UniProtKB/TrEMBL annotation:
<dbReference type="InterPro" id="IPR015867">
    <property type="entry name" value="N-reg_PII/ATP_PRibTrfase_C"/>
</dbReference>
<keyword id="KW-0808">Transferase</keyword>
<keyword id="KW-0460">Magnesium</keyword>
<comment type="similarity">
    <text>Belongs to the ATP phosphoribosyltransferase family. Long subfamily.</text>
</comment>
<keyword id="KW-0028">Amino-acid biosynthesis</keyword>
<keyword id="KW-0067">ATP-binding</keyword>
<protein>
    <recommendedName>
        <fullName>ATP phosphoribosyltransferase</fullName>
        <ecNumber>2.4.2.17</ecNumber>
    </recommendedName>
</protein>
<dbReference type="Pfam" id="PF01634">
    <property type="entry name" value="HisG"/>
</dbReference>
<dbReference type="Pfam" id="PF08029">
    <property type="entry name" value="HisG_C"/>
</dbReference>
<dbReference type="InterPro" id="IPR013115">
    <property type="entry name" value="HisG_C"/>
</dbReference>
<keyword id="KW-0547">Nucleotide-binding</keyword>
<dbReference type="InterPro" id="IPR011322">
    <property type="entry name" value="N-reg_PII-like_a/b"/>
</dbReference>
<dbReference type="InterPro" id="IPR018198">
    <property type="entry name" value="ATP_PRibTrfase_CS"/>
</dbReference>
<dbReference type="GO" id="GO:0005524">
    <property type="term" value="F:ATP binding"/>
</dbReference>
<comment type="function">
    <text>Catalyzes the condensation of ATP and 5-phosphoribose 1-diphosphate to form N'-(5'-phosphoribosyl)-ATP (PR-ATP). Has a crucial role in the pathway because the rate of histidine biosynthesis seems to be controlled primarily by regulation of HisG enzymatic activity.</text>
</comment>
<feature type="domain" description="Histidine biosynthesis HisG C-terminal">
    <location>
        <begin position="206"/>
        <end position="277"/>
    </location>
</feature>
<keyword id="KW-0328">Glycosyltransferase</keyword>
Amino acid sequence: MLRVAVPNKGALAGAAGEMLAEAGYRQRHEQRDLTVLDPVNDVEFFFLRPKDIPIYVGSGELDLGITGRDLALDSGAPVEELLQLGFGGSTFRYAAPAGRDWKPADLAGKRLATSYPRLVRDDLARQGIEAEVIRLDGAVEISVQLGVADAVADVVGSGRTLRQHDLVAFGDPICVSEAVLVHRAGSQETRAKTQLTARLRGVVFAQQYMMLDYDCPRELLERAIAITPGLQSPTVSPLAHDGWVAVRAMVSRKRVNQVMDELAEVGAKAILASDIRSCRL
Ligand SMILES: Nc1ncnc2c1ncn2[C@@H]1O[C@H](COP(=O)(O)OP(=O)(O)OP(=O)(O)O)[C@@H](O)[C@H]1O
Ligand SMILES: O=P(O)(O)OC[C@H]1O[C@H](OP(=O)(O)OP(=O)(O)O)[C@H](O)[C@@H]1O
Ligand SMILES: [Mg+2]
């Protein structure tokens, strides 16, 4: 039976559960459940802290896990990314009190608070900076105003928490993170692992695309196809009305409105965009 670790709470838990449900796996109904058995798919899910997941997967006790790239790097556990999941996007950055033009070199000799000490120590070593790293469990941004640190290194999502505490980010991001599916580095590809990965890839991909359907006079077809080339090529079917065709093509979700505008300008009618739930390409 395949054993899979899923974040039990925090920023990644909701989207991870939704993605697995969309991929056809049984999910927990009770927030406090630590395991869920999915006999139909021959999978057991373990709901764990995202920070602990690389440790379980790196030890080989669990076959696959969903966690953040930043957490995987910080754990130092021997895990490898199989798939980027497209949610939980963040950067991991240095930040210090606003009002001064900070550079990473200014951290030399300073106290730096973080809950990702390995990630920070590795980056400081790479840059040849010697600073005191203070490990905190969370709410790191408040440590400067409480006098425990001179600067921080922390996860930045919207940037709201930094602003609220009058901190500014500086230097290149230490890590650009998102939720990822990991396995133990160098571990064997099994049919079960490949299947779960393929199912999640289908959902991730489907979320990045939309299906576009429209009607188009045959003489405009070439121009319309140039706007919606699809992945391989669009499906073109005859309409009952002579001289018209129906076209169906996948379009990048980010560009869908622009593409619909362009199609309308060319003369396409009844342009419909719909969600794709999952796919295998
Ligand atoms: N505001 C955010 N926006 C986007 N991603 C975030 C945000 N906060 C955290 N993450 C991502 O979520 C993961 C850590 O999430 P989470 O907050 O659940 O863990 P934690 O901080 O260890 O736990 P907790 O907050 O429960 O103590 C990291 O991969 C991080 O990059
Ligand atoms: O840039 P923002 O959108 O404001 O998000 C960033 C904040 O979100 C996370 O905190 P979380 O809620 O996980 O609490 P924690 O600091 O206790 O981990 C992270 O540690 C930052 O504090
Ligand atoms: Mg957190």
